[in-house]
């Protein structure tokens, strides 16, 4: 498990460097050259393409941005043409960076964004709409916010239906526990839609397992180091009563595994989410029972593509049906029986995608609870 320690150390170094750069006014998008003086965009020229996301040190977000870069390259542009807006898990920074890009480039911007939490999506969309730019979002928005209420400028929103897959992994976990004992859940940021849905999936599964208890639920903010601390606290509090761990992401699972190893525990059943390369290797080795893959590479590329092709007039969002404006992305549960084949297809190399096939992998329109 040496890679987990190395992963935690690399996260620490990367974040420290980013904070140091930010302190000198060189961090975030300025680091990427987004605010360097440039001339006005000529009529008919390609619009600037930006991706606003949490942190590229996380393998999931690295895959998202890699997909965005692949799309940019499909236009004949260098990867460096993608403007990276790194919000570091801050909704305030997310909104400030997006407003700065809009101020610099105006109506031409094609923006792909995860707004960090659901409430922040509305001010982001309103700022983009006022500027006459175009935005496609993923993961986080409130249920009352819809692209079709903003004409063409709020192009689309994609999320993943996490309740069902999370319930599947929970059932697998409970079976590995012999259908009894305590399970703890480590979540992401509490206000994040995926964090909410993955906990809901766990609770759904509990209904069919009366002898499984849930003594501990705590947010780990998608962070490996915080997950390590949270799991250590759970072990102190509940001790041998913990028989399994339900993690809202792979990066959380890495911290959990390290906390368990520190106590000499090597066989605790664990499930996680995201299908990161390291997690798939751990599934192959039997250290994680299952992870759920939602194809972040495709998600990152197609979200940027939707914003770009709306900005360039290839399609008109307001003319599209609602299931093209709000839709679910694909998910695949990865277990030991199929992990090697999965790794060969999705990790050893990325499939080639048609970035104009916007809804080819869509799993239908987003459904809301009444």
Automatic annotation (TrEMBL):
Primary location recorded for the protein, binned into one broad class: other
Family named by the database record: Belongs to the bacterial solute-binding protein 2 family.
Cited InterPro entries: Peripla_BP_I, SBP_2_dom, TAT_signal
Subcellular compartments: Cell envelope
Protein name (database record): Periplasmic binding protein domain-containing protein
Keywords from the UniProt entry: Signal
Domain Periplasmic binding protein positions: 49-313
Signal in keyword set: yes
Gene Ontology CC: one annotated term: cell envelope
UniProt cross-references to Pfam families, sorted A to Z: Peripla_BP_4
Protein source organism: Gluconacetobacter diazotrophicus (strain ATCC 49037 / DSM 5601 / CCUG 37298 / CIP 103539 / LMG 7603 / PAl5)
CDD domains: PBP1_ABC_sugar_binding-like
PANTHER family: D-ALLOSE-BINDING PERIPLASMIC PROTEIN-RELATED (PTHR46847:SF1)
Entry keyword Metal-binding: no
Alphabetized GO MF terms: carbohydrate binding
């Amino acid at each position: 498990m040496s890679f987990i320690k190395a992963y935690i150390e690399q996260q620490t170094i990367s974040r420290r460097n980013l904070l140091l750069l930010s302190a000198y006014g060189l961090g975030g998008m300025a680091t990427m050259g987004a605010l360097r003086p440039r001339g006005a965009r000529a009529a008919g020229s390609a619009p600037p393409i930006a991706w606003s996301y949490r942190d590229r040190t996380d393998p999931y977000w690295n895959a998202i941005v890699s997909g965005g870069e692949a799309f940019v390259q499909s236009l004949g542009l260098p990867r460096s043409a993608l403007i990276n807006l790194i919000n570091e898990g801050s909704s305030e920074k997310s909104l400030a960076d997006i407003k700065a890009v809009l101020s610099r480039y105006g109506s031409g911007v094609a923006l792909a964004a995860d707004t960090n939490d659901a409430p922040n999506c509305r001010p982001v969309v309103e700022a983009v709409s006022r500027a006459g730019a175009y935005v496609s979002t993923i993961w986080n928005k409130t249920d009352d916010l819809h692209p079709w209420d903003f004409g063409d400028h709020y192009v689309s929103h994609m999320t993943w239906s996490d309740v069902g897959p999370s319930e599947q992994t929970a059932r697998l976990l409970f079976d590995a526990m012999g259908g009894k004992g305590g399970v703890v859940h480590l979540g992401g940021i509490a206000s994040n839609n995926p964090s909410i849905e993955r906990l809901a999936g766990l609770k759904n599964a509990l209904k069919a397992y009366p002898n499984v208890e849930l003594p501990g639920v705590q947010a780990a903010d998608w962070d490996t180091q915080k997950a390590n601390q949270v799991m250590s606290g759970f072990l102190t509090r509940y001790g041998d009563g913990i028989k399994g761990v339900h993690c809202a992401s792979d990066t959380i699972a890495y911290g959990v595994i390290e906390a368990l190893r520190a106590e000499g525990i090597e066989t605790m059943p664990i499930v996680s989410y995201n299908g990161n390369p390291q997690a798939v290797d751990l599934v192959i080795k039997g250290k994680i029972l299952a992870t759920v893959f939602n194809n972040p590479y495709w998600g990152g590329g197609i979200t940027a593509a939707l914003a770009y092709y709306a900005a360039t007039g290839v399609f008109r969002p307001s003319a599209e049906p609602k299931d093209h404006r709000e839709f679910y992305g694909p998910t695949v549960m990865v277990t030991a029986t199929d992990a090697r084949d999965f790794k060969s297809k999705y990790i050893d190399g990325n499939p080639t995608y048609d970035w104009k096939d916007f809804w080819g992998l869509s799993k239908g329109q987003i459904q809301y609870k009444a």
